[in-house]
Amino acid sequence: MSEIEDPVATVVRLLSKNMWVVKEDGSLASILVSREWYDRELFKNYDGQITVGLTESREARLEISGRLRRRLGGLRVNVWATDKPSSSDSGKLIRQKMVEEVNRIVRQNRNKPNETLYYFAGVGQATGTHKAYHAGSAEELIPQHANWNELTNVEYEKIWYSDDNRYSKSHNVNGEYALMLFRFKIDSREKIVKKIVLAFEGYGTAPEANGCVLKVWHHVAGAWQIAGGGSGGGDESIVVTLTVNLSNYIDEDGYVWLLARTVNPSNGVTPAVLYCDYVSCTVTVNGITYLDIISYRNVDRVNVKPFVFCSEFSLVSWLFESVSEAT
Ligand SMILES: [Ca+2]
């Protein structure tokens, strides 16, 4: 039986990846999402804190043999904020915005809390997670090759969203291709990952014919493996779905590597050009497949100074388990 992710870890990731609170002065609020409990010291460096804890776990047999089971979970999510002299928003207002966000995120991910979308929005050269590079070469360079050049901050912004604003790599050397390399940092342990979906929006052009090829790095074999491609000369969405032997594609550092190149090389007169509008990696883990809010209430702490504004959510989750027969 494959490993299952702890529901608390799933919900912490879901909330931290999607929490988007904008303060009255237009800046983004810094929100810490963690397991229980609320940490007053840690909290000093953030506009708000969210804690997640498990309150209950129950198992139900779904068939007489007991092989298929549903595990129901009760979760507590607390939202914490306090007044800060340096902030444009009162503690009450930050709390209210975080409550709205928890509601939105859970509602939008009710049937897929175990799915995480990784993409480049907000990424620049200083970011330590996802990375993107370009090169021109006759070979499919390995991820560690010295000839890869990282995108500049302005270039990164072109692959932040699917908005028809594209980064392009043009290469004009006879017999050589235009290449891009993408590194996604996956937060989940490889043993609990059950599906990886890589999506590339873009296309390639070259004198002989248009099209682009995608390959995924098999870090155990140390080789690029053919994964997909397109033949268009305009935007295409090319999707690569991986469901077996996933540990071969997530390396020791938690990276998944994707290579894109033009199908055909330049002839030295006309360049090979690779265009990328947007690229993403969606990871599904073995874990809860349903999450919803039962209720929430305010539980402010006004017996301490400064006041701590807190809202407490009760959530329900479930996951299905297939247990092998006892012998
Ligand atoms: Ca774009």
Quick description:
The protein is mainly β and 327 residues long. The protein contains 4 helices and 16 strands.
What would you call the shape?
globular
Give the uncertain stretches in residue-range form: none
On the 0-100 scale, what is the average pLDDT? 94
Q: Class by helix and strand content?
A: mainly beta
Biggest sheet statistics: 6 strands, antiparallel
CATH architectural category of the largest domain: Sandwich
Q: State the end-to-end CA separation.
A: 15 Å
Q: Which range best describes the helical content: under 10%, 10-25%, 25-40%, 40-55%, 55-70% or over 70%? A: 10-25%
Task: Provide the succession of SSEs.
Answer: HEHEEHEEEHEEEEEEEEEE
Share of β-strand residues: 35-45%
Q: Which compounds are bound in this model? A: calcium ion
Please work out how many helical segments DSSP would assign: 4
Q: How do the strands of the widest beta sheet line up side by side?
A: 6-5-8-13-10-11
Number of strands: 16
- CATH fold call of the largest domain: Jelly Rolls
Our count of domains comes out at 2
Q: Measured on Cα atoms, how large is the radius of gyration? A: 23 Å
The CATH first-level class of the largest domain comes to Mainly Beta
Structural description of this entry:
The structure is a single chain. Strand 10 and strand 11 form a beta hairpin. The chain has helices spanning 7-18, 40-43, 91-108, 153-157, and strands spanning 31-35, 48-61, 68-82, 115-119, 131-137, 149-150, 167-171, 177-185, 193-205, 212-218, 223-230, 236-242, 255-262, 272-285, 290-298, 308-322. The two termini are 15 Å apart. Helices cover 12% and strands 44% of the residues. It has 327 residues and is mainly beta. The chain contains 4 helices and 16 strands. It folds into 2 domains: 7-114 and 287-322, STM4215-like (2-Layer Sandwich), CATH 3.30.2000.10; 118-285, Jelly Rolls. The protein is globular, with a radius of gyration of 23 Å. The model has no long low-confidence stretch (mean pLDDT 94). Calcium ion (CA) binds at residues 158-159, 161-163, 165-166, 277-278.
